[in-house]
Amino acid sequence: MARIAVIGAGMGAMAAAARLAVAGHRVTVYERSATYGGALGRFERDGFAYDTGPTLLHLPAVYRDLFLKTGKKPLEECVRMAQVDPASRHLFHDGTDVSLPNASRAGVVAALDAALGAGAGRRWGDFLGRARDAWDRSRRPLLEEPLRADWQVLGRDPYPAVPQRRLLRAPRTAGTVAEVGTGELADRRLAALFEGYVLSYGLDPRHTPASAALLPYMEQTFGTWYVQGGMRALAHAVYERCLERRVEFVFRADVTRIVEKDGRAAGVELAPRPAASAPTVVEADHVVAGTAPAALVDRELWQEDDVRPRGGDAGGSGAPSVPGRFTVLLALRGGRPDGTAHRTLIHSPDGGDEAGAVFSGRTAERPTVTVLRPDDPTTRPDDDHEALTLTATVAPHGAVDWADAELRERYANVLMDAAGTAVPELRERLCWREIRTPSDTAAATGARGGSVPAPSLAGAEGRLLRPANSTRLPGLYLVGGEAHPGGGLAHAGMSGTLVAGLIVEGADFRGSR
Predict the structure, then answer these.
(1) Model confidence over 219-238: pLDDT tens digits?
(2) Dist. CA 460–CA 211, nearest whole Å
(3) Which of 8, 36, 53, 479 has the largest count of CB atoms under 10 Å?
């Protein structure tokens, strides 16, 4: 039985902790804040409640597998989940309004044909077929296996782009999301649909490789799920599973250094408690870091030929860093009307201008706004009120001063103006609003600039990959959004699986099955 110290109580870290405890190891989690869940926070006021991080679950199989492998109760007995149908409603600048059914490719094709015109659905369906090919080619090395030593093979884009004929010139194939929209989808609204998926993950459609087709493919194939009580309920269920497996949690424990001995990680050093005068050293046989570990060690963790942490943008455009989320939480008078879509996207009239602003450190004048209206009694004081959330992808704190009170209020009004096209009499119904920006995310989670890590993608010469879960310091492992396979709730769970496999099975581990 090995002693394992886990830094951070995010979802990937807790997933790894539960799996390692089941394997017979003694696991202790050290979390600098007062609670668990990482980005899966919850804000409550006057009987209203809101998720402050991810709000919907994709690829629920990741967490079903976690609960199957770590205890007797399956996931569905620990949380109440339901598929969201329609999966999303989309409002475009020209007035087009289309709702897409959940996990039904035929239904999506029919809906797009009806709303956008004959042929639109077929083009989107053909696009998803090519996305499936990219999924089949890259799924295991990108998501289910430890990052290969020859990771450069993932630098090639697996998306089978269609050559586009050009008069008197050689055919051209799309290499980026924006080029797929222009050449293959051939409809500004279909292009905005694809680009909206990509931007919501903090990626720049102008520079992100076409392999990002995996993002809409995964959602439209495996479905969109809502957890009753919000994603905080999922975090609580994973925390409870860890406790059942006798994982120990130490909250308000700030790890200041990873201890090394005989050339390997040998424990962690904790900042002094208020009543103590010296730091505490806790010995461990392995250390799992759910936070960026570079500042906690006295050596270089990556060599020149390794995938390194990205300090720049998520899309290759030279932006200062990865985007964050601007969120407005609204408490409304009046109940949620029957038939209301859970999620509505109000697309920007010019996605190129929006991406140009976000990835150059400016505020977009007319951003894509997501409106979330869950049909969940736990989010509101009674049926005569409604809890509603608005979000937009924005430049991180630092590039934009999101601590500026005047800017926060002004940009909240921008989101509310856009949301008014989907929610009649929005301002008349308003009881109060709460604004959360990347500066708040940075303060709550420690993420630099309040950035939200994007999932890893193949292509772009490997620039969108994350560092391997194992490091150049033996005994030190990385988990969560800053490590392979990148950001996102499902990806965090996958990283926990990979780290546990590497510790339990060692160099022989070849990935999850």
Answers:
(1) 999 999 999 999 999 999 99
(2) 9
(3) 479
